[in-house]
Each structure stands twice: as C-alpha cells, then as structure tokens.
Amino acid sequence: MTKNPISIEVLETLDAIERRGSFAKAAEELNKATSAVSYAVQKLEEQLDIALFQRQGRRSVLTPAGRLVLVEGREILQATARLANQAKEVATGWEPRISIAVESLQSYPDFFGVLQGFLNEYPAIELDICESVLNGGWEALEQGRVDLIVGAPGPVPLQKGYRAIPLAPTDLVPVIACHHVKASLAANPETLNTVFPKLRRVITHDTSLFDVARSKGLSSDGRVFYVQNINQKIEAILAGIGIGHLPRHCIEKHLNNGKLISLALKEDTAVDNFLAWKISNKGKGLQALTQRLSAIFK
What we know:
Blueprint: H1 8-20, H2 23-30, H3 34-48, E1 53-56, E2 59-62, H4 64-92, E3 97-103, H5 108-121, E4 126-132, H6 135-142, E5 148-153, E6 162-177, H7 189-195, E7 201-204, E8 224-227, H8 230-238, E9 244-247, H9 248-256, E10 260-262, E11 270-278, H10 284-297
Parallel strand pairs: 3-4, 3-5, 7-8
Antiparallel strand pairs: 1-2, 5-11, 6-9, 6-10, 6-11
C-alpha cells in the first residue's frame, strides 16, 4: 500500500505559509529554517505530481490544487485538534469546549464579565455562545446543541434529566415611545386598558424550532410586529412601531431621558429564569462555569 504523502506536519506548513504570507515568516512561526519549509512543499509537490504554489511577482500564491489541499487540510487539522482535546477530557475530566445558550433578556455585560474571568483561569477551554428566546434554550439543551442555558424562563421541563438553578428574576417593563400616538395614555390605566387591545405589540421570535413557541409579557393577540432579538425590539419600540416589555437593565437610560415611558398596567412583570444543564454532563469546566454564573446572577 502506497504511503500517503500528506502528513499533519506538511498541512501545518501549508497553513502557516498561507496565513503568514511567505515561506520565511512561516519558517519563523514553525521554528524551522526557510530551506526546510521549501523542501517540505517541494517534496509534497513531487509526490503528488502537482504544483501547490506559483510565483506572482515576489510572492508565492496557492494554485487551485494547492488551495484545495489547504482547505481540506485545515479541516483535518481541526479534527485532530478536537481528537486531542477529547482524549484529554477522557483522561482528565476537563472538556475542551462548552456551548452556551444565553436568554436574550439577560445582562450581557455581567454574562461576558463572568466568561472573561473563567477564560483567564481556564484558557484552554473553548466557549461557543448563541442567543435563545423562551423555549429555544430548553429545546437546544434537550437536543444536545448546547451544554448550558443561562436565563431560560420557567417552568423547568420535567423528567428531562436537567439540573436547574433559579436565577434572580428579570424585571420587565411594559413601555411605549414618548412620540407614539397613544403615549399620553401611558399613565392612565383605565383608558389604557380600553385602547390596549388595539395597540401593536413588538414581539421577539421564540428560537425553538420544533416545540410550541410561546410569547411572554404583553398579549400577542391583535396586531404584532416580530423581531429577532432584544436590541431590535428596543429600536422598534423607540421608533414608535408598537409597545412591549423590555428588561429594565437594557432601557434604564431611555426611561430616564423620557424616550420610553412605562405603561401603567397592573401586572407582575418579574420573570423567573434558570441556569440549567443535563445532570449527565460531568465536565469539570462546566461545573466551574456554572458556579461562577450562579454566584453572579442569583
């Protein structure tokens, strides 16, 4: 059987050349002589009987065949890195990567502040963050698309094997833009309740794909305007498109400067939310991260 000439070492060499822009800079990164880098490329070209690089002025650029080898080779390099990390996890209990879904209502400065401190202590762990709304986080956790959800709203799904820790409730404020045609009614609960069903609501899409989607806060009956995240919702309400609930920590400045006015509705606007993961997940990194997050958000 003919030996495969494409080794991990030569793929790392091609990757370094392309990223650094020259054989000399690649050699510096790889701690090799420039002649050794050139020889590795030349040897692979001879074994494959193709040209990997061609001269363009003073620069060497990849040929189409060389580009193919590099693109596919980088996937191999990533796969070998994952394999090494997974082997390390099995041996040490530390996972190489943690995927997190954070509910859009959460305070992102606090959240990313915790992650920064975590990565300072555990720099080898890779974090992958996505945003979730309502059922979306629970669904992603159940399907294994994420390892941890932060701020997912209750109730906690039963008999799913989840460990759920209550976090501090999110204070949601029903608001209207100061220039909205009905803004003058914001402080008049009796009149507001009469016109309320006719006002367009701005609603953030539930990110669940398969479970029954749900909305939170103001009724979704009547006219609605859908957005993808809280930032879009804030801007839509500020523009006067409609009304809706927004986290107080996101709109404090707009309430203070009068651009948004709270609606005098008699209701409990605190939303229960949870930090949750599967009990079967025993990774030491996840344990360390959940301890930090629960301490900040409780």
